Amino acid sequence: MVYIYKKTIGGKEYYYLRASLTKNGKQVTKDLAYLGSDPSKIKDKLTKLPQIHQKNVRKTYKTIHKFLEINYYLGKIKEKKLKKNDYLSKSQLEQIEACKFHWNTIFKKLDINSQDELLNDFAINFAYNTTSLEGNTITLKEVEHLFIEKKTPKDRSLREIYDLQNTIGIFFNIIDSRSKKLSHRLIQKIHSDLMENIDVRTGYRNKDIRVTKSRFSSSPFQYVKADMDLLLDWFESHKKLHPIVLASLFHHKFEKIYPFFDGNGRTGRMLANIILLMNKYPPLIISKKMRTTYLNALSYADKTDLNSISSKEYLKLTNFIAKEFSETYWNIFL
Fold it and tell me: Which of 38, 81, 291, 334 has the smallest number of Cβ neighbours within 10 A?
């Protein structure tokens, strides 16, 4: 396998074509060619490599193309010299802003059919992961068949099928929405639409509930509405936070209140995407395979209250969300 390797020396980046192979049962890496320090010239240099290297490059073209594209947009952002952020590293900020740059200058200018194809791909992956985090057993391939071919998976409950259909439908609603304000009405509407044909208990809960395996106590039912008032006020007064940070902190505070009987996680992740879209950032997916890391990051912030913006307690969560955000974007929209 060949790939492009980036080495940083004295703050400057240098690029090499590197091969990884198995020799005598051991994994060995070898630099095949030096590609310079300017990523914009790498494509041209690859075409001038000896024939034997070009054959290897062709085999892993998609991986190499992705690397070059990401680094091109990262280079554009690095020129801007972003301000320091207490919740995100410089590298994370650059990755996030590179995604935003591509979303607004490249994706948004694609023809409508190309946009729809990519958004369909995102919606399928988002629905699969966000419902799987809550125990849905339908596979990604089955979600694709359900959404694209309208083929219902066998031996799956109607609840699981509605769960996916509702999620996909609401995602496209928020993509098309021009809403610029979070409100009780919007939050309860998102929740009730997610729970359609799944749970009749909509609206803020009117009984106490024990959150299984949680390390926090959810808001007593008498205070759910008051705590949601506080959360919405907090959101309005902290809009100057970076949108990834704002979405992360809002998501945690929402989950800690636990305002509904069921569907809080799915609703919270949808609201996080609404916050990102409001701020002209692309949406994100929290991967099923990262479930334990995700829950641990949320739990680490549980000692905070509804008004807290402590970077110390929220650092694990913002770092986790930043990583998921960037990986989501480049994996689907590039």
Answer: 81
Burial 263-280 (b: 16+ CB within 10 A, else e): bbbbbbbbbbbbbbbbee
Domain segments of the chain as ranges: 2-81, 108-333
What angle in degrees, to the nearest 10, is found between the helix axes of 243-257 and 224-237? 170
DSSP character for 309? -
Q: What is the pLDDT of residues 256-303, one digit of tens each?
A: 999 999 999 999 999 999 999 999 999 999 999 999 999 999 999 999
Q: What is the CA radius of gyration of the chain?
A: 22
Instruction: Please name the amino acid found at residue 182.
Output: L
Model confidence over 86-137: pLDDT tens digits?
A: 999 999 999 999 999 999 999 999 999 999 999 999 999 999 999 999 999 9
Which class would CATH give 108-333?
A: mainly alpha
Q: How far is CA 154 from CA 158, 166, 216, in A?
A: 10, 19, 38
Cβ atoms of residues 168 and 147 within 8 Å: yes
Place of tokens 């996916």: 164
> Is the Cβ–Cβ distance between 85 and 245 less than 8 Å?
yes
Cα→Cα distances 60→21, 36, 50, 64, 65, Å: 14, 20, 16, 6, 9
